[in-house]
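Help!! Second protein's tokens look totally different from the first
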Amino acid sequence: MPISDNERAIFVKQDYRYATAIDSAVKAKNQMAREIAIDTNLSEADATTRANNELAFNENPRYFELEIEGIITLNDFIEGPLSYLLDFPEYKTENRQATVVSFSADYNTNTTVIGVRG
């Protein structure tokens, strides 16, 4: 398939492709703040959008462990990570989207403990 976009062709031919999104407030507090790299084959514009989305997603992360009925398996992640809308008023999570980052299934009790972040 021929590539018609010259800039994209140059970008894709580079050995290392990345885009950077920086939270200057965090860098001001801690110059050694961890940098997270995600390898991608996206165009430069799409890589920049993805970097900015990841930065926004991690701005105020919260982690919860929940036990749900039923078994989650790796097949449930084929189309991407599972996500839930949390509604825990005592934790101020009303309609906050959280993504599953870990899970542990118990076949004896037909339950899964999921770790959600978001």
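Here's the second one for comparison:
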Amino acid sequence: MPMLEFLDPDSVVPSLRARAKKQVLQDLAAQAVRRLPTLDVRDVYETLLQRERLGSTGIGDGVAIPHGKLPGLDRLFGLVARLDRPVDFESLDGRPVDFAFLLLAPEGAGADHLKALAQVARILREPGILDRIRAARDAHALYALLTHTSTSQAA
């Protein structure tokens, strides 16, 4: 079973061409709506933007995990994007972001949303995983890295 059951192979963007934080969020919202056509791109973008106003989802080491809850969504949804150029994301460590993991959850997801965020963060803390993500040749390789990584830490 994949480590991230809410991530599918079609939800991997190996090269996102955004030049600013807001553009990254807009592009992630647009990519998500292509896979979740019942959602409105403006609603997704506004949800992500509102979350960013609470504090940056740039967690450090060049990684951001923008996330939010949306009405009309019936399952957890993940989308990953490797940026073709690092973008200032006001990250905790000040480093620009070159990898983003978008996580969307149903409005009433409660603890499932937090568990999914923790699961993503655990995988991205695996020793060497970020180097392998940055070196991955294509979407298939990125997907394989994120869904077949074994975590040695307890949940």
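Reply: Different proteins will give different token patterns, so don't panic. The first helix runs from residue 21 to 35.
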